[in-house]
Specification:
Largest sheet: 8 strands, mixed
Helix content: 25-40%
Order of helices and strands: EEHHHEEEHEHEE
CATH architecture: 3-Layer(aba) Sandwich
CATH topology: Aminopeptidase
Number of strands: 8
Radius of gyration: 14 Å
Structural class: alpha+beta
Shape: globular
CATH class: Alpha Beta
């Protein structure tokens, strides 16, 4: 599960503090991410981390639903490592896992006005619709597998 200078692996309980710190540093994009929710995702095997020689640089939290859809809940990359392949490595690893599990697509919601919108387009997601959010509109993105 490695791409470029980043390796991607399943998160373990040892990673929880670093993941929570990264989530807290991205509150504007992610909202408030609860530590117990992250711990549950780690225990379920549904949280991947990207790392390099300096340590943890990103994570993606998701859920494989029974209906063939994987829902991407959160993805974050340390600002200094954006546009260097860490985010793409996380998405590629998630896609590989979802395909292996027989999932048909990955779906996510992203608040309007975030730079992540262009990232999702670059890594193969398609904007399918907009929905009203509590504070701002949400773009709904999907990536289907063949």
């Amino acid at each position: 599960m490695s791409t470029s200078a980043y390796s991607v692996r399943k998160a373990t309980p040892v990673d929880l503090d670093g993941i929570k710190a990264l989530a807290d540093a991205h509150k504007h994009e992610l909202g408030f991410v609860l530590r117990p929710a992250l711990a549950r995702s780690i225990a379920r095997g549904m949280l991947l981390v990207a790392e390099n020689r300096s340590g943890l640089v990103g994570f993606v939290e998701y859920y494989h639903r029974r209906d063939g859809q994987t829902t991407l809940y959160h993805i974050a990359v340390v600002v200094d490592h954006r546009r260097e392949g860490a985010g793409r490595a996380l998405i590629d690893a998630l896609c590989d896992e979802a395909r292996c599990m027989g999932q048909r697509k990955i779906r996510l919601k992203c608040p309007e006005g975030l730079s992540a919108q262009s990232f999702y387009a670059q890594v193969g997601f398609r904007l399918v619709e907009w929905e009203r959010g509590r504070r701002r509109a949400l773009a709904i993105w999907e990536r289907w597998f063949d």
